[in-house]
Design brief:
single chain, about 375 residues, alpha+beta, Aminopeptidase, Nonspecific Lipid-transfer Protein, Chain A, four-stranded mixed sheet, 13 helices, 17 strands, about 30% helix
């Protein structure tokens, strides 16, 4: 019988274990230390926020539960990112993953965490209350599409950001935290965050003036984060990037219609693809933040919805309303228009497609989906 506990006495042994389970050999080219330096470089102590299954002090399973803070409009939401879900090959089928995930989620409930996020298979994690959520548009741009439009490059240059670019990283840190929707990043960890998932960060300049930055997720040929500081230079920046890097897909938050309109001019096509799996625990708080945020970006029609959610944490009946430009989400005793399970509620509110929207009134359906997503560099 394995022991489940949070924390371990050796971060090095922990990294060796997940390298082994995920088929990495531990060299600089193939190791969690280089794949995710923000979590597993030598200076980290990620084992302290990881749950371990131990058999006679030997690691046989792990689940990372990493603290994250989201700023969405004027609201702050707490989250935990699930990662390193690993079971030793000789112990698969013994229930360690279920025990570890249950313990991690139980602690989230106890600690009043608002939601959790992970990257993984939809049906594998639906058992724990997670559902795929949409919040990102992906625009495909090729050298050929750029050649058709041939935007003026406007004297834009692009260069890789280096670890010793202290002043530049200071500016990126400040600018990122001015955006209306972001995950908090510590300045100390910023470069490692931008380089995680084997990504490469780039800065764009017009003369000596910083006009934007991007994170190039190399294996996906994707800008997993693209942040123009001057929207009028968006197409010039993308043209310069395509000239240098070749074909790219550009990830844009679904709420950001202004940026999407600029990027779409150069795009061959656009897809809305599921971002990651989310588990909402504090339904009132999360819906309140996201409904208010979407209304601030794209004003919603007046209407109301009463919904009962049989959630992972509790069963709650909420009244959502939009009236005269203001939103509210309140606990109510009124009879619900619809009653949903945990994953049904996540699908209704956050997936790009949900058949359940045909079962609610059209005013409320028009508000959805709400933008619950995470930028790839912040994912665990």
């Amino acid at each position: 019988m394995a022991i489940i506990q949070k924390g371990y006495h050796s971060n090095e042994d922990y990294i060796d274990f997940i390298n082994y389970v995920f088929g990495m050999n531990g060299t600089p080219a193939s190791s969690f230390s280089t794949l995710l330096p923000k979590l597993y470089s030598a200076k980290r102590e990620t084992d302290k926020v990881t749950y371990f299954a131990l058999d006679n002090e030997r690691i046989v399973g792990t689940v990372l539960s990493y603290p994250l803070t989201f700023r969405i409009g004027s609201k702050t939401l707490t989250a935990r990112g699930i990662g390193s879900v690993a079971t030793h090959p000789r112990h698969r089928g013994e229930g360690f993953m279920k025990d570890l995930m249950k313990t991690a989620i139980d602690d989230m409930v106890k600690d009043d965490i608002d939601f959790s996020v992970l990257g993984g298979r939809r049906h594998r994690y639906a058992h724990f209350g997670f559902e795929k959520c949409d919040g990102m548009m992906y625009f495909s741009i090729t050298p050929k599409t750029v050649s058709y439009i041939n935007p003026n490059r406007e004297g834009i240059t692009m260069r890789a950001i280096k670890e010793d670019d202290t002043a530049l990283l200071d500016t990126l840190f400040e600018k990122k935290h001015e955006r209306p929707y972001y995950t908090e990043r510590s300045r100390e960890d910023l470069y490692d965050i931008l380089c995680s998932w084997r990504s490469r960060p780039y800065a764009f300049f017009q003369g000596e003036t910083l006009v934007g930055w991007a994170v190039h997720y190399v294996s996906k040929r994707q800008f997993s984060e693209f942040c123009p500081l001057d929207p009028t230079l968006t197409q010039a920046m993308l043209a310069v990037a395509i000239d240098s890097l070749g074909q790219l897909s550009i990830a844009i938050p679904a709420y950001d219609h202004a940026l999407a309109a600029e990027v779409d001019v150069l795009a061959e096509d656009v897809n809305i693809i599921s971002n990651e799996c989310f588990l909402v625990l504090n339904w009132q708080k999360v819906l309140s933040a996201l409904l208010a945020f979407k209304n601030s970006q794209n004003p919603l029609v007046d209407g109301g919805l009463v919904v009962t959610i049989k959630g992972q944490k509790e069963t709650v009946t909420l009244q959502l309303s939009v009236k005269d430009g203001k939103t509210s989400v309140e606990v109510t005793d009124e009879a619900p228009e619809i009653t949903l399970s945990q994953t049904e509620a996540e699908a209704l509110f956050f997936r790009n497609y949900s058949a359940l929207r045909a079962k609610i009134n059209p005013q409320a359906a028009s508000w959805l989906p709400l933008p619950l997503f995470i930028f790839e560099p912040d994912n665990v």
